[in-house]
């Protein structure tokens, strides 16, 4: 990983969410690509690039 540090880090991970009654199954992100659990997102090593 890079040694450069950043003051601002914008992260938009592919997080999981539950389907609501008004949503179609094919519209869920997990139907199109892999998604991450909240635990996986929390374990991202952001501190290694944060200033």
From TrEMBL:
PROSITE patterns: MT_A70 (PS51143), N6_MTASE (PS00092). One of its GO terms (molecular function) is methyltransferase activity. One of its GO terms (biological process) is methylation. InterPro entries: DNA_methylase_N6_adenine_CS, MT-A70-like. This is DNA methyltransferase. The lineage of its organism: unclassified sequences, metagenomes, ecological metagenomes.
């Amino acid at each position: 990983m890079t040694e450069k540090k950043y003051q601002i880090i914008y992260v938009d991970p592919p997080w999981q969410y539950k389907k609501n009654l008004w949503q179609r199954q094919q519209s869920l992100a997990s139907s199109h690509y892999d998604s991450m659990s909240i635990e996986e997102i929390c374990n991202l090593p952001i501190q290694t690039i944060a200033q």
